[in-house]
Amino acid sequence: MDSIQNFRYLDRLKSLFSAAYILLWRQKQMSGAILVSATVIWLLCERIGYHLVPFLCHFLILALAILFLWSNISSFVNKSPPNFPDIRLSQELCDCVALLLKDQINQGCL
């Protein structure tokens, strides 16, 4: 991709994750997802007394255990093990995301 397409892609990424669009509910799904996840995290941390880092660790351990059991039991049940997609990111995409993050961090520091 040439530099003009990179900047168009960067502008699309900025508009997609713009805080104004999320706060004004122009992107209803992303705003709703952020509101629900923040509410769940608040409930876990404040009301139940469960901290965020142990919650993330326990979730990752549980996910790892489920995938391990699924891959081992799949031979007995005659089901295929889970297929993990082969994800390849282009250099242009990584550059655009890095530029976006750099701009957002610089604007936040001002």
From TrEMBL:
It comes from the Eukaryota. Pfam families: Reticulon. Residues 19-110 form the Reticulon domain. The chain crosses the membrane at residues 21-44, 50-70. The keyword Transport does not apply. It is a multi-pass membrane protein. Its main location: endoplasmic reticulum. It is found in: Endoplasmic reticulum membrane. One of its GO terms (biological process) is response to bacterium. GO terms for cellular component: endoplasmic reticulum membrane. Keywords: Endoplasmic reticulum, Membrane, Transmembrane, Transmembrane helix. InterPro entries: Reticulon, Reticulon-like. This is Reticulon-like protein. It comes from Lactuca sativa (Garden lettuce). The lineage of its organism: Eukaryota, Viridiplantae, Streptophyta, Embryophyta, Tracheophyta.
